[in-house]
Write a sequence for this structure.
């Protein structure tokens, strides 16, 4: 890995980074290069690939992305932290996002959050349940306001969630 | 149609005709419904002829700003000396708005066709469709449709054998409301933080990758094939109010209403008919208190204002608000307006890109002052403080995010002042613990 990959200005523990962009993932990235006039423009898609493969985006992965796109790790980190959907730390096996913006708020979204926190045993927003199964976060408008309250479990968009439906929904995610 | 409800007789169904019809999602299903006829026609027309037709239709941007679409296209250089780009804004993130989502879920080829026509009209060979990261299903449907359009020769180096190249690239956002702002969107595609850019230069001069660029909303582009098929005169005649507002508009209705969903109406339809006849009116035993007509970024209307308004760009302005994206947020008499205005302010504070001081500080302090009021520690001076802050947040920043935060605060204080007073006077139980 390149010398910048530990980042952060502090001595990071020397954990070997298992590269993400090898084999099919590497080929996929290279196919993307043809779709944009700059390599830099492949940054958001490349970060999505890292998250898909690893579940989150670590400091060492930031270093690797920087290297494959000819950017600096500091620059990549600046972009990663701007966007709320990139995880900069590990999350539960299933990631639950609940909309609580005004249209959902007036339709009872806060009760859905409470029900989710209780049923997943996460305790608080952003924390992972002790069994590692769930992380629940509150998000701003998911763009399905007519179907309050929408939640995203991993990539599954689920509409019209009410507190009484929470247990049944979570059962589908072992 | 009032998806997920059946069509209401007062609707004018154009864009939403095939919502809920899974067959319309496929290339064959779409061509069977007349799809791609308009694009074939456009390929035989000059750039200028298409732009003139769209200008004549009166079509205006459906993303919120209402800028005339044909005029926007005409700003692109006549000679293509460097690459031109089309960007389709599918970052639908405005609270209360969920219409583009249904267009992409049910009629992906309508959008692809609209993009292809627009690309040709502005001299672009490539279109980037920027879809918000949370829209997993629209992304999957659009991906399959683009792949099919390539396979069937509608897209690619030689679209329908015309010799013209039209490429379409889907670009996934990653969670940032501000990327719906057109210059922030271009930065995001370029692999940057989604900070809006100062204008000028305008995108038609120096946009995506520094090249001439046009950015249009999903609904705007999806209307274009209908205009080419049925003619500008037909589109222009769809008008019940001000002649400057033509065509149909998809309206997303949410909140305290019997039948939330997407309705399609002729511009100028009375808002009262939309609220009561189409969407079924308030919940049993309730009355409407407030309506936010254009997504959360516009001034709040009282019930009286909303019920007297015609639903078009000018009609809503006349009653003190803006059409915006036509996401109607309906609040009934059970709503705590102070709490909901705080929730909106918190949204904008969370979504501020933090470039401009007025926005970064203004949205955060507005939120904190509202928390103080909701926590029972508000003061009379807080009214003036909030209004002063809002004044500093309006018209003074690179983009309009901070203006959007000020709009509900200022209109909320004007129209629902007694609810703020009740918290400040201690006549109402605190809604949260004051910080």
């Amino acid at each position: 890995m390149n010398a910048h990959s530990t980042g952060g200005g502090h001595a990071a523990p020397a954990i070997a980074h298992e590269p993400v962009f090898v084999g099919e993932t590497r080929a996929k990235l290279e196919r993307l290069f043809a779709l944009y006039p700059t390599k830099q423009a492949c940054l958001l898609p490349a970060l999505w690939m890292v998250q898909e493969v690893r579940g989150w985006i670590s400091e060492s992965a930031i270093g690797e992305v920087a290297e494959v796109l000819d950017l600096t790790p500091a620059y990549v980190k600046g972009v990663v932290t701007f966007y709320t959907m990139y995880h900069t730390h590990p999350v539960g096996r299933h990631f639950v996002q609940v909309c609580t913006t005004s249209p959902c708020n007036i339709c009872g979204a806060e009760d859905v959050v409470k029900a989710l926190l209780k049923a997943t045993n996460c305790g608080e927003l952003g924390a992972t349940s002790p069994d590692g199964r769930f992380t629940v976060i509150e998000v701003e408008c998911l763009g399905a306001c007519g179907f309050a309250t929408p939640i995203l479990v991993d990539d599954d968009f689920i509409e019209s969630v009410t507190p009484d439906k929470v247990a049944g929904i979570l059962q589908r995610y072992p | 149609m009032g998806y997920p409800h059946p069509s209401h007789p007062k609707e004018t169904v154009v864009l939403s005709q095939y919502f809920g019809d899974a067959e319309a999602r496929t290339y064959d299903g779409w061509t069977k419904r007349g799809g791609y006829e308009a694009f074939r026609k456009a390929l035989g027309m000059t750039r200028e002829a298409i732009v003139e037709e769209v200008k004549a239709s009166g079509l205006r941007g459906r993303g919120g700003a209402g800028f005339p679409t044909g005029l926007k296209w005409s700003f692109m250089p006549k000679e293509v000396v460097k690459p031109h780009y089309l960007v389709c804004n599918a970052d639908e993130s405005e609270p209360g708005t969920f219409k583009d989502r249904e267009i992409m879920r049910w009629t992906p080829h309508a959008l692809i066709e609209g993009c292809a026509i627009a690309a040709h009209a502005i001299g672009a060979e490539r279109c980037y469709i920027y879809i918000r990261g949370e829209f997993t299903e629209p992304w999957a449907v659009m991906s399959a449709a683009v792949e099919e359009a390539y396979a069937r020769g509608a897209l690619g180096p030689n679209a329908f054998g015309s010799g013209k190249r039209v490429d379409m690239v889907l670009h996934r956002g990653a969670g940032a409301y501000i990327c719906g702002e057109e210059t922030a969107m271009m930065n995001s595609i370029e692999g940057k933080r989604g900070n809006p850019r100062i204008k000028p230069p305008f995108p038609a001069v120096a946009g995506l990758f520094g090249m001439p660029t046009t950015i249009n909303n999903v609904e705007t582009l999806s209307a274009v094939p209908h205009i080419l098929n049925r003619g500008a005169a037909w589109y222009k005649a769809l008008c019940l109010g001000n002649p400057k507002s033509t065509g149909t508009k998809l309206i997303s209705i949410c909140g305290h209403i019997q039948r939330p969903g997407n309705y399609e109406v002729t511009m100028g339809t009375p808002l009262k008919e939309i609220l009561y006849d189409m969407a079924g009116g308030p919940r049993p035993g309730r009355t409407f208190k407030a309506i936010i007509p254009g997504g959360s970024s516009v001034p709040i209307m009282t019930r009286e204002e909303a019920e007297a308004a015609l639903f078009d760009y000018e009609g809503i302005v006349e009653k003190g608000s803006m059409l915006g994206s036509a996401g109607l947020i309906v609040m009934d008499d059970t709503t705590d307006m102070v709490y909901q205005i705080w929730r909106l302010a918190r949204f904008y504070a969370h979504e501020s890109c933090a470039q401009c001081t007025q926005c970064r500080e203004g949205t955060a302090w507005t939120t904190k002052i509202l928390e103080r009021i909701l926590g029972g520690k508000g003061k009379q001076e807080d009214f003036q403080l909030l209004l002063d802050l809002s004044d500093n947040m309006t018209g003074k920043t690179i983009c309009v995010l901070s203006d959007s935060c000020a709009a509900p605060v200022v209109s909320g204080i004007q129209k629902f002042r007694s609810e703020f007073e009740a918290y400040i006077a201690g006549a109402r139980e605190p809604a949260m613990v004051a910080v």
